[in-house]
Structures are given as C-alpha cells and as structure tokens.
Amino acid sequence: PALAAALVFALRLASPSPAATIVVNTDQDGEVADAFCSLREAIVAANTDAAYAGCASGWGADRIAFALPTPATILLLSNLPQVTSTLKLQGPGADLLTIDGQDLWQIIRAPNVGPAIWLGFEELTLAHGSAAYGAAISAEVGRSLFARRVRFLANVATNG
Prior knowledge:
Layout: H1 2-14, E1 21-24, H2 39-48, E2 62-66, E3 72-75, E4 87-90, E5 97-100, E6 108-110, E7 117-127, E8 130-131, E9 137-139, E10 143-153, E11 156-157
Parallel strand pairs: 1-2, 2-4, 3-5, 4-7, 5-7, 6-9, 7-10, 8-11
C-alpha cells in the first residue's frame, strides 16, 4: 500500500498542471474590483494563476470563455495586458463575439518573455486592431498560435 501511494503521488507530480477556465461575464473593458470579470482582468488572472478583480484564478494552461448576451462586442479602451502564459480564448462564435481595438489598440500581445507558450483562438472575431506590428495578434519567437473559426476584420499593422 505504501509503495502504491508513493507511485500515485509521483505520477501526480509528473503530470502537467490542469487548465482552469476563467469566465468573462461583462463586455466592459476595465479593471474594477467587483463581481464582474472583464477580458482584461481574465488575462491578468491567467498570467498570474491568481484570482483578480472578480475573475477566478488561473491554473496552468488556461482557457478564457465568455458568458455574455450575444451578439457581444468588447470595445478595448487600451492595449490588453501582454499574454505571458499558455492561453486559449474560446468564444461562442465568430458572429457572436467581437473583440474590437477601435482602430487604436493592438488586441493580443505575446512577447518573448519567459518560457515558450501556446495561444489559441476559437469562435470569435478580432476587429479593428492597430499597431506597428501584428495589429490583431503579435506573437514573438517561442509563441505558438492556433486559430479555428476566427474572423480577422479590418486590422492594420503599419510595419508588418
């Protein structure tokens, strides 16, 4: 029995961390310590693996899901926080959720900081992002991207 318990414990340590699902429940773009979880706050919670301003704690490779009345548009008021950990944004459908940079802001930035990460995007629209490089998504070396049923609409990168 002791050997079996030790083996189970060792296998748990060797297993990758399970993912957490952080649910965005407001289309407002802000950071306010309230009962709502904005996309901006969800990215911070995913990056830090800690609860943040109304969002559940991230844990390992996280998924951000959206519980919003549809169709919904999240109008960004500034660049979102940089993504520094493995993350998937799971929308309800490209025609049902739009993240809009309002021709002023880059939507997703994943700089080459820390270990290699994976970014996934599914069932959403990334619109009107604006930046010198990578208007909708900027992912540097060591970042892997996956997009499935994602609409890119009117994003402008002035240099690439």
